[in-house]
Design goal:
Elements lengths: L2 H14 L3 H7 L5 E4 L2 E4 L1 H15 L15
Antiparallel strand pairs: 1-2
């Protein structure tokens, strides 16, 4: 999967739609996410602790990407 498609799926399908199955598909089970004041270890912890919270707080949040600047 190319980088642009990966970014689109991350923001459109996970953050906007809340499709947590996509997160498991595009990340390794042991991936680490760094957010302010906390690190999430593994996609299960990230889903259970962060994504579920995020989708509860921001129920109508829609993400769109208007510019891609991918470093090689």
């Amino acid at each position: 999967m190319n980088k642009k498609r990966l970014v689109e799926r991350w923001f459109n399908e996970i953050f906007t739609k809340g499709d947590i199955n996509i997160l498991k598909e595009i990340t390794a089970p042991n991936f680490v996410s760094h957010v302010p004041n906390h690190d999430f270890n593994g996609h299960d912890e990230f889903i259970n602790d962060f994504i579920n919270w995020f989708r509860t707080v921001f129920t109508d949040d829609v993400w769109s990407i208007e510019d891609y600047r991918i470093r090689r």
